[in-house]
Write a structure and sequence with these properties.
about 180 residues; single chain; mainly alpha; 7 helices
């Protein structure tokens, strides 16, 4: 370890805090996150419980919030996020300077620790069978936050608009202005 390790850890935590603040201050990203990632991504968990008119909707929703359904949502979400970030690092490795290499190593370690925590929480959550588990719910929330923090600065999820205008201003076109 070098003499700058505590400074790199402080930089890492300040970057994590900055990104968490960005998640909740960027309304376009937050809307995309809630509508597409959470609501549509977890449709298998809530759909049958909400749109079935027979009594016991809450019971069905709680039964659907089992470890297997949470895991079926979280595993692809985490896999695609890690794959995309790995490819970005490989493509942009020449732009990374010496000061950022230590931060990248800490981010890699943080990713490994996060994945291990999620695996452990899902393992504990699956021990109660098919019923609702707080550990699985917590692991699902960690998966969602990991995706949000990892993708908040992804240009694919941003829309350039004049912040002074309620509708995006005259310089912004229609849906073609979205980065895809």
């Amino acid at each position: 370890m070098s003499d700058s390790t505590p400074q790199n850890i402080c930089t890492l935590f300040s970057e994590l805090g900055r990104r968490l603040k960005l998640v909740f201050s960027n309304h376009y990203f937050l809307g995309f996150f809630i509508l597409i990632v959470v609501v549509i991504g977890s449709i298998s968990i809530w759909f049958t419980a909400v749109f079935n008119n027979s009594p016991g909707r809450l019971d069905r929703l709680i039964v659907n919030m089992n470890t297997l359904n949470f895991l079926a949502f979280s595993a692809p979400l985490l896999a695609t996020t890690i794959f995309e970030k790995t490819v970005n690092i490989i493509i942009n490795h020449k732009e990374v300077d010496g000061n950022n290499i230590a931060v990248l190593r800490w981010l890699l370690l943080g990713t490994v620790v996060t994945i291990l925590a999620i695996i452990i929480l899902y393992s504990v959550g699956s021990s109660n069978g098919i019923y609702f588990s707080w550990c699985s719910l917590f692991a699902w929330i960690i998966s969602l936050m990991y995706w949000a923090v990892a993708n908040i600065e992804n240009p694919s999820y941003s829309m350039n608009a004049d912040s002074k205008s309620a509708s995006g201003g005259a310089d912004v076109g229609s849906a073609s202005s979205l980065n895809r």
